[in-house]
Amino acid sequence: MTLPFAAIRPGPLSVRFRVRTVVVCAVLLALAFAAAVVSLGTGDVVLSPKEVLAALVGQGSPIADLVVIDLRLPRVLLALTIGAALGLSGAIFQALTRNPLGSPDVIGFNTGAFTGVLVVTVFVGNAYFMVAAGALVGGLATALAVYLLAYRRGVQGFRLIIVGIAVNAILISVNQWFVIKVDLQAAYAATIWGQGSLNGLDWTQVPWVVPLIVVLMIGLAIGGSRLLLLELGDEIATGLGVRVEAARMVYLGLGVALIAVATAAAGPIAFVALAAPQLAQRLTGSAGIALAPAAAMGALLLIVSDWVAQHAFAPTQLPVGVVTVTVGGVYFAWVLARVSRTQ
């Protein structure tokens, strides 16, 4: 069956898209917005969706404005933005490796970003920009190490995953060593943060996290077509005029930067980057990994997981990573079983 396509032609330009993909993106974004409204209205002070929407457009009561805008909105914005970044990062690496296991939390890139954060926290300080720089450097260094170790007349996807899993195991041990060496209070904070948590995030993080992720998304959108060509294989991409290794390094950098910013803000949140692209692909029915649906799915998964983390055992708030690991572990086992049957 031929899937329906549509095209927009503003002047000399032409943009072609699949109708089903646009519909799926719209539905996922609507669900994410609905989950955000529920999250903004849930807590010690319960607000109806109407009160939440009134506060968002500047027509709420003083109490609603305080609760929604000052207290809850930054966490919701960060959950949506970080979830989208995780979904996009997972989509990039799964497209590059052409394997559903090619996720940054499987091949060690977010663990490397966490290592960078621990090194900076222990030896330099815990200012936000220092932490962000440490996460970026740690993630890039891990990506470079995995890339070089996996390189053999080019990079084959499955070899990259195997090398990444080995590097990830080493970095987990390094991170545990750092946690053991610091004082008890710092070790406790690092352990909680290392689970991936949105607890305690406020407007302080929004001005640097959201713009950085938006800039990276724009950069990815500009060169997104090359990623689709790389997913077809090196030979086909080369035949279509793509400089394969250079393009792969650019996407590798963008993917690591997305996961590094997310890790710097909320710690290494597992399994969202793994599950979001695959779930989005199944909904859209596309042949390859689609970036926009993966971002929308990542935002939906994280905002829902964070709501569960906040309220499942209230008044105790769990790190959101505990929820994503619990759900994602089942999904990961299913993916492993599925991949093993196809090898």
Automatic annotation (TrEMBL):
Pfam families: FecCD (PF01032). One of its GO terms (cellular component) is plasma membrane. One of its GO terms (biological process) is siderophore-iron import into cell. Keywords: Cell membrane, Membrane, Transmembrane, Transmembrane helix, Transport. It is found in: Cell membrane. Signal peptide: none annotated. It comes from the Bacteria. GO terms for molecular function: transmembrane transporter activity. It is a multi-pass membrane protein. PANTHER family: FERRIC ENTEROBACTIN TRANSPORT SYSTEM PERMEASE PROTEIN, FERRIC ENTEROBACTIN TRANSPORT SYSTEM PERMEASE PROTEIN FEPG. Belongs to the binding-protein-dependent transport system permease family. FecCD subfamily. This is Iron chelate uptake ABC transporter family permease subunit.
